[in-house]
Structure formats: C-alpha cells, structure tokens
Amino acid sequence: MTTPHKKHVAVLMGGWSAEREVSLVSGAGVAKALEEEGYRVTAVDVQRDLEGLLRALTDPRPDAVFNALHGRGGEDGTIQGVLEFLGIPYTHSGVRAAAVAMDKAMTKALLAPVGVRSPKGLVLTKGELTGGAHPMPAPTSSSRWTRARPSGSRWCARGRTARSATPGPSASAPWSRSSSRAAS
User: Fold this and answer.
1) What's 129's DSSP letter?
2) pLDDT: is 161 or 17 the higher one?
3) Is the pLDDT confidence value at 160 over 90?
4) Which of 17, 61, 147, 149 is close enough to 72 for a disulfide, judged by CB 3.0 to 4.6 Å?
C-alpha cells in the first residue's frame, strides 16, 4: 500500500526589508505549525538573490508557497510577481492589490470615491521632511483627541477621560488628532 503524497509548502521568510527579523520569527512559526500538521516544509530565507530564490522554488517545486515576508519585497507585489511567473499558488494578495496597498496615497485615492473614509495625510519628499520646519502643525488646546499618558490605554476626549473602546484613535496610536483634521 502506498502512502499519500504529503503536500509540499515553501515558507518564504526573511527578505531585505527593515522587517526582516520579524519575518524570520513569524516564518519559523509558520513552518513549525505546517510541519506539525503533516506538511512537507521547505523554509526559504529570501535574500536579494533571484537565482537562489528560483533554485529554492523549482528544485524541488513546492505545491504552494506561504508568504511570511514583511515589508518591501514581500508585501508590495514583488515576490507575488515571481510566484505568478512560476505558476506557484501562494498566500497573500495578488500582484496588483499588494502593490497598490503598499502605496498609501494610491490606496486612499482609490478608496475615497467608494466611501471608505481615512484620516488625512501628507506625502512628503525627503527634502521636505528634513528641511527644518515640521511638516505637521502642533496640536492645539482645541485638539479633539490627545494622549492621556504615553503608554496608557485611556484618551482625553474634550476634557474627559475615555476608554479606548470609544470612537477615535486606537489606544496604541502614538499621535493626537486635532479637531480640524477630524472632519475627513
């Protein structure tokens, strides 16, 4: 009697973005979980080496790829394009969706006409950011939301303390929102 073929999953991790270390940890966790579920797993530490990546994905060719890459190169459509070219099924958004989602200004421009609201933002050049003057106005006393304490889970809302479950910024957001910006 023959044993059934174990599905082979390549777990892509690492990469070259600033989130490399996080990706290595999450990729190792995914690989371990897949192995525990009975999959045959190949962990691939992705580098800026297309030839090495192609070798890892074609010899032996996996049945599917689990994309545990974070940031540039992993979530921006780059790796998705390689996988599409090779015809290997993968987890994650497709090439176009990933590329658009990584461009925050483009995402906002596409979502606004269909009624998806998001906070106002700025796109700055490196020169504008390092030019000396702060690109955002300082919060005023009429700010609608301000941080009550640096690491706390409460916000001051127009003079009263409010739990993070109330409408407004999440408790983990390290910024404040002024009433003039809240309208959008």
Assistant:
1) H
2) 17
3) no
4) 17
- pTM for this entry: 0.67
How do beta strands 145-147 and 154-157 pair? antiparallel
Domains of the chain (ranges; CATH) run 8-104 (3.40.50.20), 137-174 (no CATH)
The CA distances from residue 145 to 19, 85, 151, 157, 167, in Å, are 30, 47, 15, 5, 10
Q: What number of other Cβ atoms are within 10 A of residue 14's Cβ? A: 21
Is residue 12 within 8 A of residue 34, CB to CB? The reply is no
The answer to whether the beta carbons of residues 82 and 48 sit under 8 Å apart is no
**Mean pLDDT score, 99-111:** 92
Query: DSSP labels for 92-128?
Result: S--HHHHHHHH-HHHHHHHHGGGT----------HHH
